[in-house]
Design goal:
Elements lengths: L1 H18 L3 H20 L7 H26 L7 H19 L7 H25 L5 H19 L10 H4 L10 H29 L7 H24 L13 H18 L2 H11 L1 H6 L4 H27 L10 H11 L11 H20 L4 H27 L1
Helix pairs in contact: 2-15, 3-9, 3-10, 3-13, 3-14, 3-15, 4-5, 4-6, 4-13, 5-6, 5-13, 8-9, 10-11, 11-13, 14-15, 14-16, 15-16
Length: about 400
């Protein structure tokens, strides 16, 4: 039995290195494929359809945007329990701006509101980061207080009344009926994405050649580009395959999905290439060593929470625009999904380990489970119970995985 386990681990390591992925992420991709096939069977073929994949992509967009920030928060050995409440408070604030303070039909209303919502998110992150970094209060306590404060503040500023409707241009950011880029531009984006993947692989090979480093087999790189090209093309065809109601016009890729892709690329670059990201991982690995190396850990912690607040603001924009309303209950329990997505994607609660793209895979798994249960008619309380169990299992897997890596 031990021989088979070692053999399987050796094979999986080789496959992961050839694909440029870590073993755990490869396992998550395999698990996601199993979940999708299982849910498709249990829902009678309703899960893997253009309509459901389109809706799933919109749901993943919001969770994925915030997961990108949560990965760095957890990597730095902190936690943010207030992200769901931030979604609700910032959304109500933005809706009030459009209905009470700005002309709802104004041409500038959408971008003024968007900037204000991002600013509120940054301020919330600044306030919480200040308490964690400079007052020395544990992030669990600060953000738990933030969860309670912001949820009730959202109720207080609008007396619990849902604020609607919103600016029509602002609504496009939510990916509704007109919030897509259409069939033609979706294929243009598809072509650019495939060209981008090929360029990244080519530049990687070129850098290795310049520095006389060992190269992966050319066939391996070509195969990976081909696989990515197929995945991107299939996704685009699926988005275009979902037709607008009562028409034969394809919807195309939703704007929130493009926002998520942009955030993922930027955050991945920040985490892997930028000095800021390297310092965050160093601090998460050992804050004492990081301080001895000259890293200002308090300032770094403050910036991490401000970045989380910024992404919460962006997530709130997408959610509020999609709902075409600001409600104090928006984002309830979203913190559970976001934290679970980060952990499932390989982010260690012990700090110092995690990837942004792993967090996106985790978000896709969490939202797939929720979407599948909705299609099966599972009651909402039971859905939350299942997601809570998934979070517990994810933490257990993280603990087992770290022990196995040390062995």
């Amino acid at each position: 039995m031990n021989f088979l386990a070692v053999k399987f681990r050796s094979v999986s390591d080789r496959i992961a290195r050839a694909a440029g992925l870590d073993v755990r992420l490869l396992g998550m991709l395999f698990m996601m494929a199993v979940i999708w096939l299982t849910l498709d069977v249990l829902t009678g073929g309703l899960f893997i359809t253009p309509r459901n994949i389109f809706n799933l992509s919109l749901q993943v967009s919001v969770v994925g945007i915030m997961t990108c920030g949560m990965v760095l928060v957890i990597v730095s050995r902190h936690i943010d329990l207030s992200v769901g409440s931030q979604i609700g408070f910032i959304g109500v604030f933005g809706a009030l701006m459009q209905n009470a303070w700005l002309p709802i039909d104004g041409t500038s209303t959408w971008w003024i509101t968007s900037l204000a919502m991002l600013g509120v998110g940054i301020f919330i992150g600044f306030a919480q980061g200040l308490l964690v970094a400079y007052a020395g209060i544990p992030s669990f306590v600060v953000t738990l207080g933030g969860l309670l404060f912001l949820r009730n503040a959202a109720f207080y500023i609008n007396s619990g009344v849902t604020v609607a409707p919103l600016n029509e241009t602002f609504q496009l950011l939510g990916g509704g009926l007109d919030g897509t880029i259409g069939v033609f531009w979706s294929w243009v984006v598809c072509g650019l994405a495939i060209a981008g993947v090929a360029l990244i692989v080519w530049r990687s090979r070129r850098r290795r050649s310049v520095h006389s480093m060992a190269q992966k087999p050319l066939a391996s790189d070509v195969l990976m580009v081909a696989i990515w090209a197929i995945v991107i093309a299939v996704f685009t065809a699926t988005m275009n395959g979902y037709k607008q109601p009562k028409t034969d016009i394809g919807m195309g890729i939703p704007i929130p999905v493009l926002i998520l892709i942009g955030v993922t690329i930027v955050m991945s670059a920040v985490a892997r290439k930028h000095r800021f990201g390297r310092h965050v991982f160093a601090m998460g690995g050992s804050s004492e060593s990081a301080e001895l190396a000259g890293i200002d850990t308090r300032r770094l912690t403050l910036l991490v929470f401000m970045m989380m607040g910024l992404l919460c603001g962006l997530g709130s924009i997408v959610t509020t625009a999609r709902l075409n309303a600001g409600a104090s209950v928006t984002g309830t329990m979203t913190e559970l999904t976001v934290i679970a997505a980060a952990v499932i994607g390989g982010t260690s609660l012990a700090g110092g380990i995690g990837t942004v793209y792993g967090g996106i895979v985790g978000a896709l798994i969490m939202q797939s489970l929720e979407s599948g249960m909705i299609l099966m008619g599972v009651p909402t309380p039971l859905q939350r119970m299942v997601l809570a169990l998934v979070l517990i299992i994810a933490v257990w897997v993280d603990t087992v995985y770290r022990k196995a890596r040390r062995a």
